[in-house]
Design goal:
The protein is mainly β and 247 residues long. Helix content is 14%, strand content 42%. The protein has a 5-stranded mixed β-sheet with strand order 2-10-9-8-7, with no helix packed on it. A hairpin with a 2-residue loop joins β8 and β9. The longest helix has 26 residues. The radius of gyration is 22 Å and the shape is globular. The termini are far apart.
Length: 247
Amino acid sequence: MKKILIIPILFILVHCQKSTKRSEESNHKEIVNFENQQFQSFGFQDKYDLNPPLTLKETTESEFKKYDKQNHSIINATPKMNRDNFYLETNHKILQFKKENDNSTNRKEDENRYEYLGFYPSLNMYAVSSNTVSEGLGFSNFELINKASGKISKIMSPGDDRIDQIFISPNNSHIAYFYNQIYDENNSFIGVLESNADKDYFKESRSFMSDQFNIHQLVWAGKNTILVKVTSDNARSFKYYKIDILH
């Protein structure tokens, strides 16, 4: 009986030692204010304009439904937080974010508050929304944080509000996103960025703009194919399109 118990006990001891080591490493990391970190911005229209626009070809609802339930590979676990801040840990430091809340009385003009959006395992990146108010108007941005390097990539939208999320191609070579203008009905945008998450690399590839419809949903149907669900009557009816990002 004693011999049988040796392996489980050793496993427990090794596991405890590893957990203690990880905890000690985390406790010794510097906590830094995210507000003071440098970042790169991507998604500029003048760079998209250097390449031909994306072409949409009509497709069927049945084809779209083959892919519309796919996992967008985002994990929405709650980060560590206290009353005023939340924290995200990278390999070298811990980032501190001032939380977004409903109390606007203590908010300073142009002060950034943050909302945690989730974690993309295939990119090894956190996503946050930075939100600010200036002269009574709200503005927000979508930002990615590389968990390994801590580098920050801001993905610009064509309007005042942020994009909702990104859609990662099956081989991680591209990310797509869309945006519907807040103040202009049936005015929409699709952007596709080349991606190399290991090198914190994004590059404007191709884009598309329309004044005929809003985009309701977007999915990847292969490493170079995107399917789009659109509406021009406030979601009472839909049309479906296919995009080949290479042609």
